[in-house]
Amino acid sequence: MSRRAVNLRNIRHTWLIFILLLPTVGGVALFRYVPAIEAVRHAFYNWDGAFTEEYVGFDNFRKLLGNLSLWGPLLLGAALAGFAGLSAEKRRVYRILHALALAVLGWAAVRFALDVPRLPETANPAPAAILLGLGLLCWLPVWFHKQGRLRAAAHLFAFLLPIAAGFTYLIGVRSSGDQLMWRSFRLILILIAANLLKMWPSIFTAVCIHRLRSERWQYAYRVLFVVPMIIPMLVALLIWKFFYDPNVGALNTLLTASGLDNVLIWLDKWVLHLGVFVEPFKPAWLGNPDLIIPALVFWGFPWVGVVGVLIYLAGLQNIGDDVYEAADLDGISWWGKFWRIELPLIMTQ
Question: In whole numbers, what is the pLDDT of the chain averaged over residues?
Fold first, then answer.
């Protein structure tokens, strides 16, 4: 039986396939691509999500990146100085990089002197001054290298200089930029780290099921993980909403019964200073800005996703028995099998 490619040229023979795919493609475009495109478009607007929508061009990016006429030469000069110190063994490369670093940092010093008097009163020039000072210290690795002393310290300083420059830049821009925008980036990083953490319980569960010797038990566990998929997502949302309820929720009841509420109240009073854990102990986990992020991270505990387990299990079952036999002959432990064989081979999943 011959196969023919499905494309627009033979659409009169394959029009039914395109019609069947149309609802799926339309749904993905409507609920995935359109929101993403709208997010990119609204990056150029002053938008409150409801009423205000004013085109501002690149102002949002300027608020995020800070004054690049000042920070750009500082970052570039610090990076060149760091690379110059690392390439001190290659004299020609070092001389070029070192000359460029000093020239860029000299220009950065001029820009700093011109921009600081025009900064608003709320702006703090200290991070930029610190970064400029770090960059101008780029001659230290050279002096250490010429003297033949503290060579390791010189290379370490050259390696840390661009990193210190980057952190100083982030601190300076964050202190003088749009605080709401930077808090949103912090939230994104927290959620990315949380999702990476939540991935591992599903991987470990899939590995445990895969290593069962009995095929019947493997099949039984696969069925048990498929059964929850018939429960609507709305039911799970209502369960977790009840779990976090401030009045009758299971979490507050458990904390009160175990006495951990007193520990949280003490930590809030003397360490955290958030004002969310007070008497009477009824924190609104989903209604308080200081508690919503930890609540979302804990959401779904123990984080064994049904779909995730099945996807990882399918990847594990594609690993041939000869691979495990070779590992047994080499005397690899159970952890070695996971770290050196199973985890690398399911990276695509």
Answer: 79
Amino acid letter at 31?
F
Query: How far is 265 from 274, CA to CA, in rounded Å?
Result: 10
CA 206 to chain centre: 24
- Residue 334 has, within 13 A of its CA and on its CB side, a CA count of 6
CA-closest candidate to residue 85, choices 132, 153, 165, 169: 153
Asked if pLDDT for residue 308 goes beyond 80, the answer is yes
Question: What sign results for the dihedral spanned by CA atoms 101, 125, 155, 144?
Answer: positive
Contact 144, 153 (CB under 8 A): yes
Rounded Cα gap, residues 76 and 100, in angstroms: 10
Q: What is the dihedral of CA 44, 50, 51, 54, to 10 degrees?
A: 0
Provide the pLDDT for residue 128: 62
Mean pLDDT of 263-286: 86
> Is residue 94 within 8 Å of residue 102, measured between CB atoms?
no
- 228 contacts 309 by C-beta, under 8 angstroms: no
The closest alpha carbon to 70, from 109, 12, 22, 26, belongs to: 109
Is residue 191 pLDDT above 60, yes or no?
Answer: yes
Rounded distance, CA 337 to CA 323, Å?
A: 10
pTM: 0.62
Please give the average per-residue pLDDT across 91-100, as a whole number. 75
Higher pLDDT, 44 or 179: 44
Q: How far is CA 342 from each of CA 56, 323, 332, rounded to the nearest angstrom?
A: 50, 10, 12
3-state secondary structure of 55: strand
- SS3 sequence, 16-80? HHHHHHHHHHHHHHHHHHHHHHHHHHHCCEEECCCCCEEECCCHHHHHHHCCHHHHHHHHHHHHH
Left (φ > 0), alpha (ψ -120 to 50) or beta: where does 8 sit? alpha
Residue 232 tokens, joined: 């609507």
Q: Among 49-63, 101-115, 289-303, 319-333, which is the least confidently predicted range?
A: 101-115
One-letter amino acid at 68 equals: L
> What would the two tokens of residue 181 be?
């925008």
